[in-house]
Design brief:
Distance between the termini: 54 Å
Shape: elongated
Bound molecules: nicotinamide-adenine-dinucleotide
Number of helices: 14
CATH architecture of the largest domain: 3-Layer(aba) Sandwich
Helix content: 40-55%
Oligomer: single chain
Number of strands: 9
Strand order of the largest sheet: 3-2-1-4-5-6
Order of helices and strands: EHEHEHEHEHEEHEHEHHHHHHH
CATH class of the largest domain: Alpha Beta
């Protein structure tokens, strides 16, 4: 059974299509109270469904008027502002019995701090970390993966599954609070390194005169196989639909990968997990995110950043 009053804060690249899916897929008449610091995002969503979208003037107002609220903003400092801001934050409202779900990819420390503040304020409010994977296309298609910071037997899980199911197709309870974020940061650390390894290996092959399409096909049936190789190959022209084949436009911005990779390295330090590839990997994403030729492009632009030959077809005589 869908509750009738929901809230949504943060209508950006991810949040906007997620909110739209809630409006489209939930029980008819489900109302959505929304807030974003961008007036443009608010009025655009209002125009989509004037009766069901109720624009609020602060995070506090959204919290006051909704039973369950979702937040998805860029970084930990934005999450702190949304929840903890003294006069306008979620916690300045009465939150007893409310369910608060943060889908932002942030450091676990911020999430734990917000959780603590919520616990101090109300014994009956619930707070969950629920970061997402799947990018803007997954958000629009309603096929996101949610990594939910709770146990399998959490009493709110059936309701959360129903609501998150309007925005995603895979929902993983990760075992406890902040473990959703842990899963997300571990995933991005791993996929960030796979992208660097794939870009470097393809670069070696191209420099030795090998056709990268052939090399990628060999990886696909050998031990270098990965989703990055098969679907998001960093070399232009290998995967026709990958951002690399469209001047690295779209996809997952290199600055976001740098942010997540850095958060994973910090988390590893905090828990004493030894990393051999953390610092070198971070220096690649750090450098690429301030390089004019790479900034604002898909993170697989690291092939360009390491000097990979994007015109390999010319060198191979136009062969494919
Ligand atoms: P975005 O910058 O496009 O959108 C963020 C939105 O939050 C903006 O509309 C902004 O105005 C709003 N905002 C910022 N501070 C606010 C505040 N104090 N109060 C209210 N609204 C505020 O970012 P995004 O790409 O949607 O990413 C959001 C989160 O999702 C990030 O943590 C990101 O790492 C994560 N994520 C992004 C992707 C992706 O492909 N873009 C994929 C998975 C996860």
């Amino acid at each position: 059974m869908s509750p009738r009053v929901l809230g949504f804060i943060g209508l950006g690249v991810m949040g906007y299509p997620m909110a739209l899916n809630l409006l489209k897929k939930l029980e008819e008449g489900t109302k959505l109270h929304v807030y974003d610091v961008s007036e443009e995002a608010l009025s655009k969503l209002k125009n989509e469904s004037p009766e069901l979208v109720l624009v609020c003037s602060s995070a506090r107002e959204v919290a006051e008027k909704s039973d369950i609220l979702f937040t998805i903003v860029p970084e930990g400092r934005h999450v702190r502002a949304v929840y903890l801001e003294e006069r306008t934050g979620v916690l300045s409202a009465a939150i007893d019995g409310k369910i608060l779900v943060d889908c932002s990819t942030i450091d676990t420390k911020t999430s734990i701090d917000v959780h603590g503040a919520i616990r101090n304020k109300s014994a009956t409010a619930s707070f969950y970390d629920a970061p997402v994977s799947g990018g803007s296309l997954g958000a629009a298609a309603g096929s996101l993966t949610f990594m939910l910071g709770c146990k399998e037997d959490d009493p709110n899980l059936p309701l959360l599954k129903e609501l998150l199911g309007a925005m995603g197709s895979s929902i993983f309870p990760c075992g406890g609070f902040a473990l959703g974020l842990t899963a997300k940061l571990c995933n991005n650390y791993c996929s960030g390194l796979i992208a660097i390894a794939t870009a470097e290996a393809m670069n070696i092959g191209i420099k030795c005169g090998m056709n990268p399409v052939l090399l990628s096909g060999i990886f696909a049936t050998s031990t270098a196989q990965s989703t990055i190789n098969d679907k998001w190959n960093p070399v232009p022209g290998v995967c026709p639909n990958a951002p690399a084949s469209n001047d690295y436009q779209g996809g997952f911005k290199v600055q976001l990968m740098k942010k997540d990779f850095n958060l994973a390295v910090e988390m590893a330090k905090r828990v004493g997990a030894e990393l051999r590839l953390g610092d070198p990997g971070l220096s690649v994403y750090d450098g690429a995110s301030v390089d004019e030729a790479c900034r604002n492009r898909d993170s697989r632009v690291i092939f360009r950043y390491i000097g990979g030959n994007e015109d390999w077809k010319d060198r191979l005589g136009g062969s494919k």
